Amino acid sequence: MKYVDEFRDGELAKVLAASIARNVDPARSYHLMEFCGGHTHAISRYGLNDFLPPAVHMVHGPGCPVCVLPIGRIDLAIQLALERGAILCSYGDTLRVPASNGLSLLKAKARGGNIRMVYSSADALKIARDNPQREVVFFAIGFETTTPPTALAIRQAHAEGMKNFSVLCNHVLTPAAINHILASPEVRQYGTVPLDGFIGPAHVSTVIGSRPYEGFAAGYRKPVVICGFEPLDVMQAILMLVRQLNQGRAEVENEFTRAVTRDGNLKAQALVAEVFETRDSFEWRGLGEVPSSALQIRAAFADFDAERRYGLSYAPVPDNPACECGAILRGLKKPQDCKIFGTACTPENPMGSCMVSSEGACAAHYTYGRYKDIEGVTA
Amino acid sequence: MSEIKKGYVRPLDIKHGRVDMSHGSGGRAMAQLIEELFLPAFDNVFLRQGNDGALLPPLPEEAGRMVVATDAHVVAPLFFPGGDIGCLSVHGTINDVAVMGAKPLYLAASFVLEEGFPLADLQRIVVSMAAAARAAGVPIVTGDTKVVERGKGDGVFIATTGIGWVPHCVELSGDRARPGDALLLSGCIGDHGMAIMSQRESLAFDAPIESDTAALHELIASMLACGADIRCLRDPTRGWLATTLNEIARQSQVGMMLDEAAIPVKPAVDAACEFLGLDPLYVANEGKLVAVCAASDAERLLAAMRAHPLGRAAAIIGSVHADPHQFVQMKTRFGGRRIVDWLTGEQLPRIC
Description:
The complex is a heterodimer of chains A (379) and B (352). Chain A has 379 residues and is an alpha/beta fold.
């Protein structure tokens, strides 16, 4: 497959692995957080840990949109589908996220909710056009990557004067989350989460550019390498981070130059700014309330805001006490440290959100790497 | 199947007509549907007996044992590149019988039709089914038709049951894989699933991908005839390669190691999966099989498979080893190692 296979070349991987091994100082450790679920998935799916020297530790970050979605937000969506009779549209993985009362969107569908999986916000608009007598709500989730298409759908609905379409907005912001992690007491005070550098988002950065990371790279003295989602991208970024750390640098570097510029996609940014504004605060699963970390729909587009339209009020719901998703999302714990990992919590019956999406740290480890937890399992 | 007097009913309007509730009521309308649409297509001596069931001839003395398999088909869309629900319902059940090492002999078919379904579409499906059965040499000897109200079906559901016989000398079972055995695959994976997906309304993309739906019994016959020590055959349909291998690993209490680079995937299927965020290891096929055989016979079996048109792209894709945890692992093309797990729920696209 052209433009893909080049970034999955096993021979090049060996060359990069050798280079990483040469550059790593065995006397020290390198704790690198891959912020995005896309990186977590690539690391697990291609078995990248097999290429890394023991001094390099990958810490999974909270950049999986499904994983950070709090239970209360899914409850709102289920409420719209089951109690308000709306057709609720959302992206694939969202359907399986566990909500209150043993429900998920998939289970609410089995109970008669009209819930549709869509591939894009445009599909949700089409469903609204095809069902003029029904209320259609697009349950919008994701980081900066999926925000511009949602903005476009709202603007389109506005232009067409659609009366039956609205958006339940859960879009969140990457830099705010990274800042929150760096400012957390575990990282700053106690040092319980050693974090030496970041593998920065790929797709998110195509929209926001590399500039937004410059502040905290300098402020917290942590190097960031913006990195594509292919396995060779990740290895190259690890090498770049190792070099920065060895040289005592803390800069924003861009490995993903084929798609990311310093300024990002200005047109998309303008579109987002036209439709959305920053929320004062938003609850993230695992991170709790994070100020200025999410978007809401501007008053000019209030008709398309499901929260206003249905007078929804958000009620936080605590996670299952046995679930360690919170600590895992902050890099405090690993999936295998959780008591219910692989026992009560499996991809078939996820208790926590990290087990839902294949980008979630728990699901990725369960699906691709759990044999590594067992002594003596080899070929 | 009941007789009705000819001449006092107007012929079915297959071009414009639609299925209505009377077609499942057991009355004249149903008899007419059977007589004018099903019988001419499926025609054989057993159906012509006109009874509720088919009276079959005795099996030859040396026949061995009977095999029976059943499969319900609920595919949407009903017509897809490379096939339709009709031929699929014949191939699927023939393959389930054949992977037991059996020669498929007869099929039975049940139709659940939705009120309002165009008779022209039904005829297209029935003709395709009849052609597939005839090509495979396996007659449809008995059947049933029911009609459900509009909105309670999805056009047409077809359940088929097949019976066949397997000689005493052939012993294939999922619990016979042993450490050291070789894993073989008869061709490229993911074709059927991606052909279906390319037609779904919300996705609809242009890709030169056709379903691989095919009856595998002749390929299997030539594999059995080559004398290789085959432990087990499976035709992985839903949940595909990944789930099928996990089933065998569990039944035989062994582990497996696959070589990703050896698993054949057509470039168009690979690209479509990449685009949609799906893993071809979990995408359906309808005309492929997995074989487990003794390592020393692997090359011989591979040659036999490749000599058959349905096995031309066959490959040795991995091996069986001892593992009390029964993990199916894979050496990735990239050079790392990972688990190939059971499919979880439905394969849903990732968001990012």
